[in-house]
Amino acid sequence: MTHLPPGAQRFVKLRVVHCGHSLPARNEWGESRREGKFEVGAPPLPGPLLRFAEEREKRALRTCRRFQLPLFSPPPACRDCGRVLVSAGVEKHLLNLVCVAALAVVGLSCQPPASPDSVSGTIETDDARVASRYGGRVEKILAQEGEGLSGGQVIVELDAAELHAKRDQIAAQLAEAEAGPRKEEIATMKAEWEAQVAQLNLARLERKRAEELFAAKTISEIERDRAVTSEQALEKTVAAAKSRYDLLLAGTRPERIALARAQLAELDTQLREMKIFAPTNCVLEVLSVKPGDVLAPNQQVATVLLTNHIWVRVFAPEPWLGHIAVGDAVKVRVDSFPGKDFAGAVEQIARSAEFTPRNVQTVGERVKQVFGVKVRLDNAEGKLRAGMAADVSFPKVPK
């Protein structure tokens, strides 16, 4: 018995049902015993003392958070014989608990049976593992796990300073090739060509004079040959200068411009790979990197769930195959939205039979052969999620 003032103890004892053994007519407090209950022989307790005793007894009760039902401490024992005494309040709450449990069992047993044309399965969704074809250091992370992403939204950015510098270099070369030679360059090359032509004319005169002197036997043969060789060398020099001048006039070769453009396009592709985008409307499920991480080429960066690509796989009994075809419309229900039908369509029917998996329940017997059926769901509202249990009804299956 809890230590309380004498008046409060008498009040509490008044609520205790006796165990039923034979006792003297009065107890040690001088209280009479009638019909198995203690009666207080003393005057009624004052109001504050009565309220104190009531609050004290209420605080002795505990509450189970899960079921919201009263849970009581072990009852006290009889002071006279040692047997357990049961409080009348305890008996009342225990009776309520038994009634609630009985109603729950009856309610479960009275639930309507599953529809004969439906089977159960688990909703799944397609996922994508995004990565970069080129390695690099993670510079920025622009999304968080669980965040909804739109198609083309950037998830991670890699360091691309070197690629930007190289692209600027190739872009400058392409611009130079497309612009062609400057006027000053053309004028300089023309002047060089004209100077070589003048030297060639002089060499021709010297060669002609050398031949005349050699015919008069004034100079030796080697001097004449030297003049002839000088003329021939200058002719080749003039031809080379003329070719360079004509090349400048013709401008840059188209092949060189095409090569520069191809190099620039390759660098643009690499720069796009430095940003990892969401492939379509999706949810970022797993982010595998942090700022500063160095990634190898094709290393996975994140996993995204394609929320618009959601489906459920169920297992239909063999007798149903004659009533199910690819493209058939079906109705899908989930526990999260009772009474609401979601639209779906049969996308695939397995070509080979199998036994019912242990983790899936069907309307038919478990020992029968079944065929896997993939149903694509319409999740335009975004209410369906992967992992939900779903009941799929086939309207064409006879009930």
Write the layout of secondary structure elements.
Layout: H1 6-14, E1 33-34, E2 37-38, H2 47-59, E3 62-64, E4 69-71, H3 88-109, E5 118-131, E6 136-141, E7 148-149, E8 154-158, H4 161-179, H5 183-215, H6 221-250, H7 254-273, E9 275-277, E10 282-287, E11 294-295, E12 300-317, E13 329-334, E14 342-349, E15 354-355, E16 369-377, E17 389-393
Please tag this protein with its features.
single chain, about 400 residues, alpha+beta, Elongation Factor Tu (Ef-tu), domain 3, OB fold (Dihydrolipoamide Acetyltransferase, E2P), six-stranded antiparallel beta barrel, 7 helices, about 35% helix, rod-shaped
Can you offer a commentary on this structure?
The structure is a single chain. By secondary structure, the chain is of the alpha+beta class. The protein folds into four domains: 103 residues, no CATH class; 97 residues, Efflux pump adaptor protein, beta barrel domain (Elongation Factor Tu (Ef-tu), domain 3), CATH 2.40.30; 62 residues, OB fold (Dihydrolipoamide Acetyltransferase, E2P) (Beta Barrel); 103 residues. It contains seven helices and 17 strands. A six-stranded antiparallel β-barrel has the order 5-12-16-14-13-17. A hairpin with a 4-residue loop joins strand 3 and strand 4. Helix 5 runs antiparallel to helix 6. It is rod-shaped, with a radius of gyration of 49 Å. The two termini are 65 Å apart. The N terminus is likely disordered.
